[in-house]
Amino acid sequence: MDTGSIKILVLVIFTLATLSISLSTNGSSSNIGCIESERQALLVFKQHLLDPANRLASWAPHEDCCRWWVGVVCHDVSGHVLELHLQNPPAYERSRLGGKINHSLLNLTHLSYLDLSHNYFGGIPIPHFFGSMVTLRHLNLSRAGFGGLIPHQLGNLSHMHYLNLAGDDYYKESPQQYVENLGWLAGMSQLKYLDMSNVDLNKALDWLQTVNMLPSLKELYLSHCHLPPQHSTLLSRNNLSALTLLVSLDLSFNHFGGPIPDGLQNLTSLRHLDLSHNYFNSSIPDWLYGFSPLEFLNLGSNHLQGQISSVIGNMTSAISLDLSLNNELEGGIPKSLGNLCNLKSVSLGGVKLSQNISDILHLLSFGCISHGLESLGLRDSQLFGPITGHIGYLKSLRKLDLSYNSIVGSIPESLGELFMLRVLYVQDNKLEGNLLESIGQLANLEEVFFSNNLLNGVISETHFENLTKLKTFSGSRNSFNLKVHPTWIPPFQVEILALGSWHLGPQIPPWLHSQKQLLSLDISNSGISDSIPSWFWNMSSQFGYLDASHNQIYGEIPYIPVQPFVSFDFSSNSFNGSLPRISSNLGSLDLSNNSLSGSLSSFLCHRMKGTMSLQYLILSGNFLISGELPHSLQNCTQLVILDMGENDLNGHIPTWLGSSFQDLEILNVRSNEFHGQIPNELCALASLRILDLSQNNLSGFLPKCIHNFSVMATPDDDGHPSHFLMEDDNHIFDVFSDYGSYVMKGNLLNYSTTLRLVRIIDLSNNNLSGEITEGVVNLQYLVSLNLSHNHLSGRIPKGIGAMNSLEALDFSQNQLSGSIPQSISNLTFLSYLNLSNNDLIGKIPSSTQISGFPASSFTGNQLCGPPLTQNCSAATGEINPSMRNEDKRDEVDWFYVAMGTGFGTGFGAFLVSLMVSRRWSRIYFGFLDRMWTRILLLYAKATRFHAV
Ligand SMILES: *[C@@H]1O[C@H](CO)[C@@H](O)[C@H](O)[C@H]1NC(C)=O
Ligand SMILES: *[C@@H]1O[C@H](CO)[C@@H](O)[C@H](O)[C@H]1NC(C)=O
Ligand SMILES: *[C@@H]1O[C@H](CO)[C@@H](O)[C@H](O)[C@H]1NC(C)=O
Ligand SMILES: *[C@@H]1O[C@H](CO)[C@@H](O)[C@H](O)[C@H]1NC(C)=O
Ligand SMILES: *[C@@H]1O[C@H](CO)[C@@H](O)[C@H](O)[C@H]1NC(C)=O
């Protein structure tokens, strides 16, 4: 959902909640009071509930429960309690009811409607006794924190029309509900509406058989139910014809595979079909397009193949069509799509259309689709060519997404005629000229994303004069020069503002002071050379995200403000002084490449009550000193990145590092003055992807347990690039992608499709001795291994060929002896190899791969054969010692070597790679989820909605 729709949703829900409350308080105007036994039952029920926000304050013992009690609806004449509306407004966590549900509810003998949705009952199972409330017709227990087995006794509720048991998918820690079977559902023969989304139905082999016994069913929602792959064949074989009334079917987010089940054809009333987020892998069958009553079809995020057939023009009832994220679907949009006069929303993002955008605009603007089309999603669809003036025909367009394509040229003026446009995404293309001149007239524009293009020009106040509704303005990485009067007060109040790499400086723009709703700000690389004024510090306490990196901002950083789950990036500036105070709910802090000094000991983690939220701590490239790493760091248990590289830290590598950080993925202390051994305890960091201890004074042996770095030995699930994951949360993604691609110096586009996740060990330039432990060869997904410039001896591990993900390997400048193992020629991805300056002897294993490396990869040994000129038959003589290359000139900056190999290393690569991997994205976007909660809460507050 975009911000707009979330807001509308919140608004609607709050309005409904208020409405239902007012109905229930005023609706029963007759003088028949509440029945005493029912009032007592409700009071007992209330007594067992937890009600932190006192929502049930109106349930006072001596008041008429029918007239005054919030959420209670009685029968006008008999006074029996008929309905209980106790749902919580979603996302307003503080007012959730919890505790126990007392069986006194059974005394409400006429209750037909019970809604407890969106509360939080802490994982308790749905009480069995609900199955005895036989008068119920409407039961909504959705997203209310119930867990465990759903009681089969519910099957006794034979009058049930509406049953919603959907679990909560929003919070990772939300309890999971499951069933052993669904046979009991058959007792609800009048059921019209059934939602069991997010309930584990994996064991319910009878689910289809059972729903087929519910002849009145009109809506069925089984999204995210762990329904297994083989069940899709059931859909084909089984007789679904009993469900002739079914209007809505949602089977999204399951594990269905194979072809789209043709049994669906028999659901003759179907208008709304959602099969998205499964593994269907056929082509899209023509019968589906010919299935004329369908209004809403979502086949997004599957593995569908083939082309989009021109029979799509038969979907004459279609209102919304989503085929996005099927990246084996290819070919262009057929002309016939233009004939679908009812179509309002088309989503083909991530489909390989390989089409000229001007052709698409042409076919859309001449068909009758042009009148009604409100949303067009063509993100990452391999579009090219220019946007033509035809765009001006799409007069109803509210949302246009053309991001992540190769669209060129300037923006036509007719774009300015799209008066309805609220959301525009054109980031990551090759657009030129001054976009703002076209969009300056779009008075309804709320969100616009155009970062990472070739746009340029001078922007002044007048460009913004009509953009009064802007909430998101994201234009980083273009070459705009913003020239406004110092006293300018913009006509908008934005929430997300990204102006990275615009020319804004030298001052921090004073007009930012007027932006009272700013949650996210990117002013990186914008020529600011200023100290931070106090008003900016004050306002930054409202930020969820701030990137002011790559400027010349100077002065001290007094403190980092205290809002929950914030991310602050002040890297690559000229800040000095000591480390700032931070609060326990900071999520991410990057202060790298400044001139901060002093010790770590007073910093962080130790004065706090409870745990720290800090996940990313990046302090590399400063002048920090200390003894050992401070113990207080142990309380930052959620660290994912600990980067202290390039400082003046010393002491031992503490053993507790290994036990404190279960989620640590990056540990970088390169280029400090740590000494002593590498503790074996480090091997407990099972999540570690990047271990960089290089350029210290570490001595002793390599840890024998090195094979325990299990992430380095296991593959990732392959995932879509993250902008797929963030399909609907474009704005947030964009803000964060600014971050990643910035570090990649604008190369995001080049790398994002080929990137694999990096896993790196760099222990080079220390005093390590002993043998290279054979266990290292188990790290099969390690991409880069650097042990150079140590005193390692013994042989190169024989099984090294097993490390077949290696792209870079450096053992140079050690005392390794023996011959090079033959298996090294199995390292087919290897593009950097350095074994020079050891005591290796014998013939270099021959393979085209190996002999393709330069001679310098092998010099300073007693090796022979290609690529060296030494001929092996003659290789008995001494190698001239002068060939030993002790010269540091030869030293490669390891962090950048791999850039050329197509994966890139260092922090930039990590950021980009996290955009590619699902697992990393989960971590990252988990963080964003919480940010969203916050944004929602802020919104709720801002609009002064109260739960009751
Ligand atoms: C509910 O009804 C039963 C039997 O009618 C009675 O014994 C019990 O006290 C009632 N409970 C409440 C809380 O009113
Ligand atoms: C299901 O639909 C197919 C094709 O329309 C038809 O041949 C078949 O008889 C139908 N099955 C039932 C049980 O109605
Ligand atoms: C599509 O519509 C055309 C024209 O009405 C019709 O001849 C054809 O059979 C339809 N195709 C399908 C698969 O329904
Ligand atoms: C703002 O709107 C007015 C009235 O529609 C129009 O005349 C003016 O050109 C617009 N400004 C910009 C910058 O487009
Ligand atoms: C961690 O936090 C706890 C309480 O919040 C505190 O008592 C303890 O001293 C801290 N540990 C360190 C090593 O600072």
**First-residue to last-residue Cα separation:** 26 Å
Radius of gyration: 32 Å
CATH hierarchy: architecture of the domain at 650-717 and 745-873: Alpha-Beta Horseshoe
> Total helix count?
18
Quick one: overall form? Answer: globular
Query: Would you identify the CATH H-level superfamily of the domain at 650-717 and 745-873?
Result: Ribonuclease Inhibitor
- Proportion of residues in β-strands: 15-25%
Tell me, what is the CATH class of the domain at 650-717 and 745-873? Alpha Beta
Major sheet summary line: 30 strands, mixed
Q: Taking all residues together, what is the mean pLDDT?
A: 81
CATH topology of the domain at 650-717 and 745-873: Leucine-rich repeat, LRR (right-handed beta-alpha superhelix)
Helix/sheet category: alpha/beta
The parts where pLDDT drops under 50 for at least 5 residues are: 1-31, 718-756, 875-948
Number of strands: 56
Distinct small molecules bound, one entry per kind: 2-acetamido-2-deoxy-beta-D-glucopyranose
Assembly type of the chains comes to: single chain
> What share of the residues lie within helices?
10-25%
Signal peptide: 1-22
Membrane topology: Single-pass type I membrane protein
InterPro entries: Leu-rich_rpt (IPR001611), Leu-rich_rpt_typical-subtyp (IPR003591), LRR_dom_sf (IPR032675), LRR_N_plant-typ (IPR013210), RLP23-like (IPR046956)
Subcellular location: Cell membrane
